[in-house]
Design goal:
Blueprint: E1 4-8, H1 12-24, E2 28-32, H2 35-44, E3 50-53, H3 62-70, E4 80-85, H4 90-98, E5 103-106, H5 111-120
Helix pairs in contact: 2-3
The chain binds magnesium ion.
Magnesium ion (MG) binds next to loops.
């Protein structure tokens, strides 16, 4: 598994804070501000191992991105997708998991929550 992680969120402040945490854990950070840019990033960097994905974004939202990603045979199961969102109602969570998300983090997040989720997924911190 590569140490590349894609942070997808329309809020720059979220991308920066998530990026900081993941960089500290040894990951190489890539960013996208919406699902369409995220699809382009996946084309340029198909070995990205984890995607931290916001739901509500302009142009293409996180759920539509997720479905488009998982429809590609090479991305049917990988990278791991962790939803990081305020969309935390049970119907939304079930919809995202059915759409191919692996884990769910509710905003606001903390470093320890993120580490816990990575551990649940069996992802070792590169560093
Ligand atoms: Mg958003």
């Amino acid at each position: 598994m590569s140490n590349k992680i894609l942070v997808v969120d329309d809020a720059k402040v979220v991308r920066v804070s998530l990026g900081k945490i993941m960089k500290k854990l040894g990951f190489e950070i890539f960013e996208a501000e919406d699902g369409a840019v995220a699809l382009e990033q996946m084309k340029s960097h198909p070995d990205i191992a984890i995607i931290m994905l916001d739901w509500n974004m302009p142009v293409m939202n996180g759920y539509d991105f997720l479905v488009a990603l998982r429809a590609q045979p090479k991305h049917a199961t990988l990278p791991y997708v962790v939803m990081v969102t305020t969309e935390t109602g049970m119907p939304s969570m079930l919809k995202a998991l059915a759409g191919g998300a692996n884990e769910y983090i509710m905003k606001p997040f903390s470093e320890s929550i993120i580490r816990d989720k990575l551990e649940i997924l069996g992802i070792e911190e590169p560093r």
